[in-house]
Specification:
Largest sheet: 6 strands, parallel
CATH class of the largest domain: Alpha Beta
Number of helices: 10
Distance between the termini: 39 Å
Order of helices and strands: EHEHHEEHEHEHEEEEEHHHEEEH
Shape: globular
Number of strands: 14
CATH topology of the largest domain: L-2-Hydroxyisocaproate Dehydrogenase, Chain A, domain 2
Length: about 300
């Protein structure tokens, strides 16, 4: 029996994710949006690509949450997009009500699902979904670190003219300006980048990683990234539905790990069939812990503004 994945929001991130999932061919996919006929049209177009690309995934576009019933994984991408000059924090109040309403419908129709939150500001929206759903923390996870780490790895690979597959790295903290790329633990084919690049150049790459989303927003002029975000979500879904138990940085609800409690923060996490299966605690240097605490404080401020 195929797994069932629902993607809420048929914009660029959501529809690109649906296409990627369909091409994986291990799950049937429902694409929900409030815009009449739009998800239906996109779903039909993707469905008709199946004979060419060789996948049998059923893709359903809908404006009715009833069609999402009994989903194994539900991805929340819906919300107001980030525009040039707009910080993720500006999106807070606009997207809080959207995520709460979406989550209520997820609980109603798929009470046993695992929720992946993508809507920005991501860490705060994951907190909204957790409180609204009443789910255990293992079943509400935010997509952040996978994307931020992918950007970090991309920039390092470009700088060294190396394969991205040889670059291993972690980016922790909130999904925003206070994220914490752990350059100390970054390696290229096992070699620390401190042996390959100057401290100054590493810091420049770290800063570009922090500004990665804003750089794309600025270049596009209207809209934000969606190819890399959808790929990052897909990796998380792969690990959950195929029970791969991959370790990747995700926004998870901490209960004392890293000295942080009752808050979503990006840390290395093992994802499997149960969702979050383990928080991996990396021993941080004093300056890294300080930066992580600062990032957590920024998320906590948002949570307090929302009254959670």
């Amino acid at each position: 029996m195929r797994s069932k994945v629902t993607v809420v929001g048929a914009g660029f991130v959501g529809s690109t994710l649906v296409q990627r999932l369909a091409e994986r061919d291990y799950a049937d996919v429902v694409m929900f949006d409030i815009v009449p006929n739009m998800p239906q049209g996109k779903a039909l177009d993707m469905l008709e690509a199946g004979p060419v690309l060789g996948y049998d995934s059923l893709i359903t576009g809908t404006n009715d949450y009833a069609d999402t019933a009994n989903s194994d994984v539900v991805v929340i991408t819906s919300g107001f997009p980030r525009k040039p000059g707009m910080s993720r924090d500006d999106l807070l109040k606009k997207n809080q009500s959207i995520v709460a309403e979406v989550t209520e419908n997820i609980v109603r129709y798929s009470p046993n699902s695992i929720i992946i939150v993508v809507t920005n500001p991501l860490d705060a929206m994951a907190q909204v979904a957790l409180k609204t759903s009443g789910f255990p923390r293992e079943r509400v996870i935010g997509m952040a670190g996978v994307l931020d780490t992918a950007r970090f790895r991309t920039f390092i690979a470009q700088e060294l003219n190396a394969s991205v597959r040889d670059v291993q790295a972690y980016v922790l903290g909130g999904h925003g300006d206070t994220m914490v790329p752990l350059s100390r633990l970054c390696t290229v084919a096992g070699v620390p980048i401190s042996e390959l690049l100057s401290a100054e150049r590493i810091e420049q790459i770290v800063q570009r990683t922090r500004d990665g989303g804003a750089e794309i927003v600025q270049l596009l002029g209207n809209g934000s990234a969606y190819f890399a975000p959808s790929a990052a979500i897909l990796q998380m879904i792969d690990s959950i539905l195929l029970d791969k138990k991959m370790i990747m940085p995700c926004a998870v609800y901490l209960k004392g790990e890293y000295g942080i409690s009752d808050l979503y923060v990006g840390v290395p996490a093992k994802l499997g069939a149960k969702g979050l299966e383990q928080v991996i605690e990396v021993e941080l240097a004093a300056d890294e812990q300080s930066l992580l605490n600062k990032s957590a404080d920024a998320v906590r401020e948002l949570v307090e503004v929302m009254g959670l």
